[in-house]
Amino acid sequence: MAAAFVAVHVLIGRLTFLDRTPRSAWLSFSGGVAVAYVFLHILPELASHGEIFASALRLEDRLAEAWVYALALTGLALFYGVERAVTVSRSDQRAKGEGDRPESGVFWVHLVTTGSLVAIISYLLNHREDMSASGLAVFFVAMVLHFMTADYGARANHPELYERYGRWVLALASLGGWLLGTLVALPEFGIACLFAFLGGGIILVVMKEELPAERQSRFFPFLIGTVLYAMLVIGETYLVGG
C-alpha cells in the first residue's frame, strides 16, 4: 500500500486523462470519496479520541474533546496558511509578468508541509484505531484517491518543480512514514494526536480542491464517489459490529 502511494506521487503527471476542463470526473469522484471519509471516519474518530485525551491529560471529557478538535483545527489552519501563501505568491508572480506560478521558496514550504501530511498517513498504515483488514482497506482507498487529488493540485501549481523534485520528495515521505511505522510504535495518545492533526489537514485539502468555482468540479461524479464510499464504510462498520 505504501508502494501504491509512491506510484501515485511519481506517476501523477502521466495520468493525462486528469488534465481536462471542466474538471476530470475521476478527480471529482476522488474528492467525493475523501469528503465521505472525512464525515464517516475522521469526525467520528476525533470524537472517540476524547477519551484518550481525557485519560492522558487527566481532563474532564468535554475539555478533552475540545483539545482534540483544537488540534484538528491547528492542522486545518496550518495547511490553510500554506495554501494561502501559494495563492498570494501566484498572484504576485502574475503581476510581475513572470507567469502563473508561485515562487520556488513558497513551493518548497508547500512541499514540506504536504510531505509531513503524507508521512503521517503512511505511518498510520501500521498504527490505527481500527486495525482490521477491512478497516485498513477503507483507509487505503480513501488515502490513495486523496493523494491523486492533492498531487494533481500540487503539480498544477508548479509542474516543473513538481516533476523534478516534488514527486520524489513525496515518494520518500511515503516510504519514510511507512518505515517509521514498522520501527516505532507511538503510545495511544501519540496516535490520537497524529490522527487529529491529520484530520484537520485532510479536511482543508479536500475542500480546497473541490469547492472553488474555478475548479469547475463535476457534481454527479462527486456525488457518486461520496455515496459509494459511504456505502462501503457503513457496510464495513456493520460487518465489524456484527
Structure, described:
- This protein is mainly α.
- The chain has one domain (25-241).
- Helices cover 80% and strands 0% of the residues.
- α1 packs parallel to α6, α2 runs parallel beside α9 and α3 (50-57) crosses α4.
- The mean pLDDT is 82.
- This is ZIP Zinc transporter.
Distinctive features:
single chain; 242 residues; 0% strand; globular
- Helical segment tally? 9
**Estimated share of beta-strand residues:** under 5%
Number of domains: 1
Mean pLDDT: 82
Outline the secondary-structure elements.
Blueprint: H1 2-11, H2 25-48, H3 50-57, H4 61-95, H5 104-123, H6 133-157, H7 159-183, H8 188-210, H9 219-241
Question: Can I get a quick summary?
Answer:
With 242 residues, the chain is an all-alpha fold. It is 80% helix and 0% strand.
